[in-house]
Write a structure and sequence with these properties.
The structure is a single chain. The strands form four sheets. Strands 1, 13, 14, 17, 18 and 20 form a six-stranded mixed beta sheet that branches. Strands 3, 4, 5, 6, 7 and 8 form a six-stranded antiparallel beta sheet that branches. This protein is an alpha+beta fold. A hairpin with a 7-residue loop joins β13 and β14. The protein has 13 helices and 20 strands. It has helices spanning 2-8, 13-19, 23-33, 39-55, 62-75, 86-97, 124-128, 149-156, 212-226, 245-255, 315-325, 419-430, 444-454; strands spanning 82-84, 99-102, 105-110, 113-119, 135-139, 142-143, 163-169, 177-182, 184-187, 191-197, 200-205, 232-236, 261-266, 274-277, 303-308, 330-333, 341-347, 353-362, 378-379, 481-482. α9 (212-226) runs parallel beside α10. Mean pLDDT is 81; it is low at 1-31, 412-420 and 464-488. 29% of the residues lie in helices and 21% in strands. The protein has three domains: 2-76, no CATH class; 99-187, Pdz3 Domain (Roll); 191-482, 2-enoyl-CoA Hydratase, Chain A, domain 1 (Alpha-Beta Complex). Keywords: Hydrolase, Protease, Serine protease. Residues 464-488 are annotated as: Disordered. GO terms for molecular function: peptidase activity. Pfam families: CtpB_N-like (PF22694), PDZ_6 (PF17820), Peptidase_S41 (PF03572).
Length: 488
């Protein structure tokens, strides 16, 4: 918190010092913001900049001050707005394009170490012999113990053709293994699938990226090629943090009638008031044709369950909300994260940008899920014993300065009964539990979804969700314009 205020206090001081009296600067600001510039406050900021330059114990570069100032100003707005420096902007673009430079492993944490969930096929890690279940204990000479998973992942990423040496503990080996891997560009498919048993298939979207719609079309076609008589399909969106909006529209369009509204947005700018429909112009792909046009007709009518949890956010909530509103699928799992805002990338230079919250989004029936999330039709815990680590995750309503839900003022009510006691119980329980492999043989929620599709009993959760008494309106308060702006 203190660093946020420190950053905010340095807003654009060096830049302002030179132009605060400029009529051109004032006119430009009025044109862009529609309001006069707060000159007195800007003079104060310029004075602070001058004090730092003259009195601070060490010399501070102007660029550093300005970068931190911009970062603090944007970050003070809400949890999802951010200034993207060269590195962050590059990582964002890589993430949305489904590629990054690294080793090529899916990882989790176990006992303070990085656990290899699965090496990506044909990746450097796969070729070097890393196996599922391996524990990475050191990255080069640095112990992993004490790092967060994000910190460890950042260390494993880097520039192409650079080396990293992993110290690996493997169950069947008496001594640690030293494995040196050369980083390369990794291309990741965001969609996984398999036929669970004759007649029933599982389709997982891990993140919504630019290639997601094409990947989904390929996986669905492969499922029906393997088993043309699919009776039930599970769409798995658990722990899907979201991604690009066109990906969410395309995934929804695969299962909904053509041309129906999938999601609408509403914000200050005219182009933020929009409705997005289930047709190609709104989920535009890189392929020449429409990848969804070649899907079997049965995809539109197959019985469906959508699995969600508190890690399902943003684009995954758009899909779950649309399929729920049209009663196209039964939503199963636990209440989703509740990120109902749209972030637009405004590029500042060739390699920097601002990610700015520009709108809220609404399901086809006009529901805002901001700070509330999607409430499943069937509440099912992560395991037979309870909701495990999923019950400990933060949701949007827990984040400082989160946007409110403009449709439902009771959306932020959380169940605080015996919260501390429940967290302690879950923490103790999850120390004994292995990381869950979605789609694996021990996937309890997937098993319940298959039971539901077969008409068999489902073990529902005992915990109750605090729901609002206020009914959502049917339509967005402002009539959104029909346009195809892409927001990321």
């Amino acid at each position: 918190m203190s660093s946020k205020f420190k950053n905010f206090g340095l807003i654009s001081l060096g830049m302002i010092a030179g132009v605060v009296g400029s009529m051109q600067f004032d006119a430009m600001a009025q044109k862009n913001a529609g309001a006069p510039l707060p000159v007195d406050e800007l003079r104060q900021l310029a004075d602070v900049f001058g004090l730092i330059k003259s009195d601070y114990v060490e010399n501070v570069e102007d660029k550093k001050l300005l970068t931190e100032a911009i970062s603090g100003m944007v970050a003070s707005l809400d949890p999802h707005s951010a200034y993207l420096d060269k590195k962050a902007f590059k990582e964002l673009r890589e993430g949305t394009q489904g590629k990054f430079v690294g080793l090529g492993i899916e990882v989790g944490m176990e006992d303070g170490y990085v656990k290899v969930i699965s090496p990506i096929e044909d990746s450097p890690a796969y070729k070097a012999g890393l196996k599922a279940g391996d524990l990475i204990t050191r990255l080069d000479s640095t112990p992993v113990k004490g790092m967060t998973l994000d910190e460890a992942v950042k260390r494993m990423r880097g520039e192409p053709q650079t080396k990293i040496t992993l110290t690996v503990a493997r169950k069947e080996e008496d001594k640690p293994l030293l494995i040196t891997i050369v980083r390369q560009e990794i291309r990741v498919q965001s969609v996984k699938s398999k036929v669970i048993e004759p007649g029933y298939a599982w389709l997982r979207v891990a993140q919504f990226q630019e290639p997601t719609v094409e990947d989904l079309a390929r996986k669905l076609s492969a499922i029906y090629a393997q088993d043309p008589n699919i009776k039930g399909l599970v769409l798995d969106l658990r722990n899907d943090p979201g991604g690009v909006l066109p990906g969410a529209i395309g995934v929804s369009a695969a299962f909904l009638p053509k041309d129906v509204a999938v999601v609408s947005t509403n914000g200050q700018l005219p182009d933020s008031k929009a409705t997005f429909y289930a047709r190609r112009e709104f989920y535009g792909t890189r392929s020449l044709g429409d990848p969804l046009s070649k899907l079997p007709d049965a995809v539109k009518n197959v019985k469906m369950v959508v699995l969600v949890n508190s890690g399902s956010a943003s684009a995954s909530e758009i899909v779950a909300g649309a399929l729920q509103d049209y009663k196209r699928a039964t939503i199963m799992g636990t209440q989703t994260f509740g990120k109902g805002s749209v972030q637009t990338i405004r590029q500042l230079s060739a390699d920097t940008a601002v990610k700015l919250t520009t709108a809220r989004y609404y399901t086809p029936n006009g529901r805002s899920i901001q700070a509330k999330g999607i409430v499943p039709d069937l509440m099912v815990d992560e395991t037979a014993e309870g909701d495990g680590l999923n019950g400990l995750r933060l949701r949007e309503a827990d984040l400082t300065k989160h946007l409110t839900n403009d449709k439902d003022k009771e959306a932020e009510v959380r169940n605080k009964v015996d919260e501390l006691e429940e967290e302690q119980r879950l923490a103790a329980l999850d120390k004994k539990r292995k990381p869950l492999e979605f789609g694996g043989k021990d996937d309890f929620q997937l098993a319940q979804a298959i039971n539901y599709l077969k008409g068999l009993p489902v073990q529902v959760a005992k915990a109750k969700v605090v729901e609002s008494k206020k009914e959502p309106s049917i339509n967005d308060p402002e009539d959104p314009k029909k346009n195809g702006d892409t927001k990321k």
